[in-house]
Specification:
The protein is of the alpha+beta class and 105 residues long. The protein contains 4 helices and 3 strands; from the N terminus they run E-E-H-E-H-H-H. The longest helix has 11 residues, at 61-71. It is globular, with a radius of gyration of 14 Å.
């Protein structure tokens, strides 16, 4: 058997104080890619310095994609609340009304 990768959701803050939301299986590697500008998101190019301000393990890619989709539709105030309160995965899923999709431990 092989172990499934754990997907994480994260926020990166730009110099202009914007929050960029993304998902990945390796947050530190993905953040490095964003900083280098080579493999990172085009949106983040020339917007540095960048700060990784929030990350949380979600589980499956499917659930992480749902989280990303719903978070991107939140207001800036709600997104900042997630960062400031450093919400746990369980609390984030509840906020997004996705708790029924969470995998059983």
């Amino acid at each position: 058997m092989y172990e499934m990768a754990v997907w994480s959701f994260y926020f990166v803050r730009t110099r202009q104080n914007c929050l960029y939301a993304g998902i990945t299986t390796d947050v530190s590697k993905r953040f490095s890619e964003h900083q280098s500008g080579k493999k990172g998101a085009k949106y983040l190019r020339a917007k540095g310095p960048l700060q990784l301000v929030y990350s949380v393990d979600i589980g499956s890619r499917s659930l992480a994609s749902k989280v990303e989709y719903r978070v991107k539709r939140l207001t800036k105030i709600k997104k900042e609340q997630i960062v400031v309160e450093a919400l746990s995965a369980k609390t984030l899923l509840a906020l997004l009304k996705l708790e029924s999709f969470a995998e059983e431990d």
